Amino acid sequence: MSDADADPAPPPVPDPVPDPAPAPAPRRRASRADALRNRDKLVAAARAAFTASGEAAPLEAIAREAGVGIGTLYRNFPTREALVEAVYAAELDDVTDSAPRLLERSAPADALRAWMRRYAAFVATKRGMAEVLRAGWDSGRIATPDTRRRIGAAVGTLLARGAEDGTIRGDVAADDLTVMLLGIFLTAATGDGQEQADRLIDLVMDALRPQPDA
């Protein structure tokens, strides 16, 4: 048989294609989730520390309370000012967002009372960071938040719902109540703390109830 009559050689069998390497995206997502959790823990620990000890609370103690190293703290917040700004922003978000949440599960008057207690805690935390915040706002290093408008909107929502169901007077301006509460809680912070704040909240709630016709 001639070479021309011979069967052609079979084509070479290609090497098997290896399975693709697993995508690293899940690991990246997990790492990002861990980083966000660490940041949240640092903000929570700093909030407690600044409220209890003021803005000079040791950063090492804050990191230790959050369960992370000091390097993790500095990666998230390069300066004490950055940490104070983050705590204030988180507190402002929480106190303003809490008004509709409280109204979902409580009667308007009860929601207003509970919100006042939350606002008292907000004022106490802000008081512990006052000097750093003021310096940052004055210099422009910390963005000036729209605190008064946002707090006033939360108070206005609570007052409006109370007026609708007849448990809160309808002639109270949200800004007036906000200013009064701020003065009360700043003063109470120098006295016997939450116990005095609770007594003052009782007085405010009495004043907010509709008065019977004479």
CATH architecture verdict of the largest domain:
Orthogonal Bundle
**Averaging pLDDT over every residue, what do you get?**
86
Element order: H for helix, E for strand: HHHHHHHHH
Which outline best applies?
Answer: elongated
What's the number of helices? 9
Tell me the distance between the termini.
Answer: 128 Å
**Biggest pleated-sheet summary:** none
> Under CATH, the topology of the largest domain is which?
Tetracycline Repressor, domain 2
**Secondary structural class:** mainly alpha
Record field, number of beta strands = 0
Uncertain stretches of 5 or more adjacent residues = none
Cα-atom Rg, whole angstroms? 29 Å
**CATH-level-4 superfamily name of the largest domain:** Tetracycline Repressor, domain 2
- Quote the beta fraction: under 5%
CATH class designation of the largest domain? Mainly Alpha
List the domain count as a whole number.
2
- State the helicity in percent bands: over 70%
Produce a short descriptive summary.
Helix 7 (147-165) crosses helix 8. The protein has 214 residues and is an all-alpha fold.
Description:
It comes from Actinacidiphila reveromycinica. Pfam families: TetR_C_43, TetR_N. Keywords: DNA-binding, Transcription, Transcription regulation. InterPro entries: Homeodomain-like_sf, HTH-type_TetR-like_transc_reg, HTH_TetR, Tet_transcr_reg_TetR-rel_C_sf, TetR_SbtR-like_C. This protein is mostly helical and 214 residues long. It has 2 domains: 28-78, Arc Repressor Mutant, subunit A, CATH 1.10.10; 80-214, Orthogonal Bundle (Tetracycline Repressor, domain 2). The chain has 9 helices and no strands. Helix 1 (25-53) packs across helix 4, helix 4 (80-105) runs parallel beside helix 7 and helix 5 crosses helix 8 (174-188). The mean pLDDT is 86.
